[in-house]
Amino acid sequence: METKMDCTPTSCTPAAADVDPNFFKDFKRILTWDVSVPPRTILDVSFPVGGVEEIGDGDNCQDAYQYTTSFIKKNGDTKTDRYCKGGSVTQLDFSGATTLTVDVPRGAELTGKVFSINARPTGSRKMSVNVDQGIVVTIRRTAEEPECDVCEGEGPRQTCDPSYQRLPYNPNTTVEFTCPKPEEIFNMDINRELDCTETVCSGNSVQTKDIFSNFNRTFTWDLKVGQSQTFQLDFPKPGMRQIPEEETCPDDHTYSVVTYLRTGPTSIGTFCKGGSVTTVQVRFKGRVALQVPGKVKVDPVDFKVSVGPETKMIAIAKVDLPRGVSDTVLFSANYLRQFPDEQQMQWSFNTPGMHNYSVSFLDQTYPECIQDDVVVEYQKENGKSLQLSLTDPQPQHQQGNFEMVLKNCQTNTTLPGLTLRYKVSVMRSGHPVLSTVDLTKQEGISLLLEKISEDPFCEMSINSVVKEKILVAAGTKASLSFLDCPNEDVRLTATKVIDCQRKPCPSTALSVPVLDLSLPMPLHSFTWNFTIPNNSTLDLVAPVGNLKQSLPGQECSRASSFRLAEFDGFPIGDFCFGGTIQKIQVHTNASITTPGRDFKRSTMALLNVSVTEEISEGLIYTIIPEVSSPTTLVSPNWPNGMKKLSTISWIVHVPDQYKALLKFVNVSQPKCYKVHAIISVKMMGREEEMLSRTEKEQMEKELLVSQPFNLNMINCKPETGNLSLLTEVVLQKKLPLLAIVLGLVGALVVLGIVLAVVCVLTRKKKKLNKENSAYMAKGNIFRPSDRHFTKTRSDNDSHVYDSIDEFLVYGHLLDKTPYSDSLPSNKMQAQDSLDYQDRRMVDNELYTFKNTGDINTIRLSAVEPESSMSDEYL
Question: Is residue 315 part of a domain?
């Protein structure tokens, strides 16, 4: 019986294969249903409870009740499968027109519903892809089932193919798969060609763009240089590890290097991250590939590509053998197939110092040589070489760097060829450095040795017990051993505990004690740890002079410096000799650390330390400021903040003849929890404060203090921020009191003199305003008392003229007729003449009359006048 069933993309008619259970029950029956579906439609066939089970071509169902499905694939092939009743498969999916056949044996009853069908659109996957310039993406089918096309583009220009698609450079293209899970069917090959000249390759840093992240991906880089040249791959530390070609790497990132010879592609090797191979040089032309499975994020090594040297080798691998005990396994090119005929490959090994290496062949096949022999050649740094065969014993327990070259002969290609798997073993060759430390005679001194390098092969031991950190306790004796530990990789520190709680401590001059030790490394630092009673203070003073704090621009030399810290490690500051700090007082247990000195050479005293009575603050500096330059004061742990709830005070001594200008250069205030942070200034001997500011108040820039003072800081418990202070003290000369008084008196005297002069001049001016003036024709108005010269007219020649034009003076009195032969006679008295001047009011500065005096003459020319006028002139 044949039945046709038609489906749309969403449903089928009829939806089930219903059959009369007694239909020709006495006969063998073959029931066929032809189901047609539109393109891109999936047909779902569901079986009743119990399901079906697929069987092979030569198998038969036990009850002879058999289902057969058949559909034509897109490539034209017909796929046929057979099933029996009673399996676990309850649904079958088909991607096209399908024929279902049921063979029912004679006498067997049919179920009312043989199967049911349903149609649904084919699931698809569409994605936008950005293919960079120089990149070509190739999509290849790797699984035969199910049906699926890969399409590139959209609309009428879309091209589809069931097995292959090539995507060249395109900043924005669309890829569509006509199945819901294309990552199970297709793989991606993402290829880039790197152009290399004679000296450099473009894009020397190989980077990978992660596209099609759900698919299995193979990233490939094709490189080509001159026929005798090599392209060089430099891998970042720690390098690469070679594995057999058929294996994959634990991190799902598997690298392979291939070279193209005339005989065909040859695998140089397969590699994983984390090994000793640092460089691979490949001759002429090759490919680097990285395989990453689907749904794994690409995290490649950032290897560099460059042009290498010329060589006759097909490849050169550079190997940095690790320190310590290790085995490095390597493979010849084309391992498990055959090494190319008449070719050679080189490995260059860098052996760490104080290590021995041994070469062992693990697995090899021997070719049948037609010409020449297979040779393994070793080349040492000193130029010595050694040629061996595959069967000879290889080098054992050797030192130094070396090269190994594998040379193949001309082989009989009908027989197995040359293959080699070998290992290079490395072990330490050095002898441990032994030291004995005896601290039984050094009271309170202990030693600490720590490894400070990342070298894991430095081995330290105390009394034959290997440890990463060694502590030689005070008063003990120990045997130390150092294997492969350079001196600069081990830090040695010494500590002396001075306990002043159990018994009083006298004043002590600190100096690094003489330590007669056999240790090879230098002393890095020496620390004194002081413990004092709660009601005591630790006083620190310089043996000579004062102390200086190390600050930017005022650094201390390492040879004479020390670091002061509280016992819990909180730093106070670094100090040395030659400054303005007369004394440091610490109201807590403290540690003093100085850079190391020579064990066997005593040094001068670094510091004088004594235990005194308790102070009210946690820390007190006594300061003697410099006159010639500013004195800088900083808070503990500057520029970082003070310890929470701590206090500090500076006692600043100001000389009698000076005053101090306090400059607050850098103040950092915290945000406090409950209590306030306070900065205050108070003159010594006075209760009132000149300045007091909390963290919420604006701080002054400067403050002038005329006598010794205290600068105090109290820290709060900060929520955010830190309390820190940098201030400068500048001394300024005071002006003496006597000089000030004399200056005021002098100013008053000068002011009185000025006022007197002003009064005299004012009176004089009033008198002058009452005097008469004389008029001269064509002349100036003048007063007889005008004082235009500092000398009198009789005392100088200011009234003498070289010549006088008489016509201009007397012309208005003359007739217009010419002069007569003689002048008119006009007798005048001397006092009526122009020669007359009465000097009784002008001869002294007070303008008073003379008691007596003769008539004074005024000369109008340089000629001396006669005692009386001549009769002729009159």
Answer: no
Place of tokens 């001309």: 410
Could you give the CA distance from residue 711 to residue 691 in angstroms, rounded to a whole number?
A: 9
Share of the chain above pLDDT 70, in %: 85
Bridge partners (DSSP) of residue 683 are: 709
Per-residue tokens: 860: 């109008």
What torsion do the CA atoms of 468, 450, 320, 425 make, to the nearest 10 degrees?
A: -30
Q: Do 748 and 718 share a structural domain?
A: no
pLDDT at 204: 57
How many angstroms separate the CA atoms of 831 and 856, rounded?
9
Distances (CA, A) of 449 to 435, 492, 511: 13, 5, 21
Judgement on whether residues 561 and 705 belong to the same structural domain of the protein? yes
Q: How many domains does the chain have?
A: 7
What is the length of the chain? 874
Residues 298 and 351 in one domain: no
Q: Per-residue pLDDT tens for 100-122?
A: 998 888 877 777 788 889 988 88
Q: Is residue 564 located within the same domain as residue 670?
A: yes
Among candidate residues 265, 239, 264, the one with its CA nearest the CA of residue 255: 239
Closest CA to 699 of 672, 651, 665: 665
Q: 474 in a domain, yes or no?
A: no
Residues 114 and 55 in one domain: yes
The average pLDDT across 392-405 equals 95
Q: What are the DSSP E strand ranges found in 578-708?
A: 581-586, 590-595, 607-613, 619-623, 631-634, 647-652, 658-668, 671-673, 678-683, 691-694, 702-705
For residue 670, whether the previous peptide bond is cis, meaning omega lies within 30 degrees of 0, is no
Write the single-letter amino acid at 430: G
Say if strands 125-131 and 170-177 run parallel, antiparallel, or are unpaired: antiparallel
Cβ partners under 8 Å of residue 39, min gap 6: none
Q: Tally Cβ neighbours within 10 Å of residue 496.
A: 19
- Put simply, whether the predicted model's pTM sits higher than 0.70 gets the answer no
Residue 482 CA to residue 38 CA, distance in Å, equals 81
Examine the fold and report which residue of 721, 747, 770 is the final residue of a domain before the chain moves on: 770
Distance CA 492, CA 521 (A): 7
Pair (289, 387) in one structural domain: no
The set of residues, in sequence order, having a beta carbon less than 8 Å from that of 324 and lying 6+ positions away, is 426, 427, 428, 456, 457, 484
For residue 755, what is the DSSP state? H
CATH of the domain at 561: 2.60.120.290
Contact 700, 654 (CB under 8 A): no
Tokens of 83: 């099933």
Which residue is it, tokens 């000089």?
Answer: 739
- Report the alpha-carbon distance of residue 258 to residue 224 in Å, rounded: 12
Are 629 and 562 in a shared domain? Answer: yes
Please give the backbone phi and psi of residue 819, each rounded to the nearest 5 degrees, phi first. Answer: -65, 150
Q: In degrees rounded to 5, what are phi and psi of residue 749?
A: -60, -45
Cross-strand bridge partners of residue 272 = 241
Domain containing residue 749: 737-770
Rounded alpha-carbon distances, angstroms, from residue 651 to 548, 551, 624: 15, 20, 9
| CA gap 140, 127 in Å, rounded | 17
Distance CA 217, CA 186 (A): 10
What's the rounded Cα separation, in Å, for the pair 224 and 221? Answer: 10
Q: For residues 430 and 482, is the Cβ–Cβ distance under 8 A? A: no
On whether both 116 and 128 belong to a single domain, the answer is: no
Is the residue at 111 inside a domain?
A: yes
Count CB-CB contacts under 10 A for residue 351. Answer: 21
User: Domain boundary at 184, 205, 222, which?
Assistant: 184
Residue 795, helix vs strand vs coil: helix
C-alpha span between 539 and 554 (Å, rounded): 24
* Within a domain: 455: no
Helix-then-strand count for the chain, H and E: 2, 65
Which amino acid is residue 723, in one-letter code?
L
- Selected residue with higher pLDDT from 742 and 532: 532
Most confident of 25-29, 78-82, 224-228, 254-258: 254-258
